[in-house]
Specification:
With 239 residues, the protein is an alpha/beta fold. Helix content is 31%, strand content 20%.
Amino acid sequence: MIRRFPTPDLLMAGLADFIVETANNAIATRGRFDFAVSGGSSPKRLYDLLTSDGYKNKIDWSKAYFFLGDERNVGLEHPDSNFRMVKQSLFEPLGIAADHVFPVDTILTPAEAAEKYEQLIRQHFNGGPCQFDLVLLGLGSNSHTASLFPHTEVLHEQTKLVSGLFIPEVNMFRITFTAPLINQARHIAFLIYGASKAEAVAEVIQGERNIESHPAQLVQPVGGTLEWFLDDAAAKFVS
């Protein structure tokens, strides 16, 4: 489903409302809310809204558990760390308990960190399907999402849930959810705004399938829902 909003502020409010509804339904049905969050500047605006007086009491955050959809291979206090940003803008303001937050162990090698993170996820779901209630994703102007970048081997991963890889485009090692893990989620939400993303949005949503060039096309939930939260600028080429 495409949800289109005139401005980024209205987009953030619409997505925040969706998260509230999704979280409360998960807690009512299964007793907890399993949320895979995203790094970057766009989600920070969302997290600032979720921690505001208007939203912070709409979810029982003591029943929420958080994983990172992808992480840069840097220390957890490094300025480039996704975990550091989410901790400062979401976890700390909401007082999330440390045992409800699962950072990537970037002290390890990327391959070891990915393997350990997959083990954590499998343990969290207690041997059952690794099915997050919500996976939040962004989209790069090159059509990457999480750390699924164009022309990388991880795009063809079929068995691993988490992968550690070197990405030449950004000259960096990263640890990322793979498409098979993302696609198990009950709900997947893309958060995208701004004209700089408009071409990528149109290519991913209505262009010919080419996962090598447009990795976000890999996101096709198995039994779950896919929601595109777009402002008018990002959606301007979507018919």
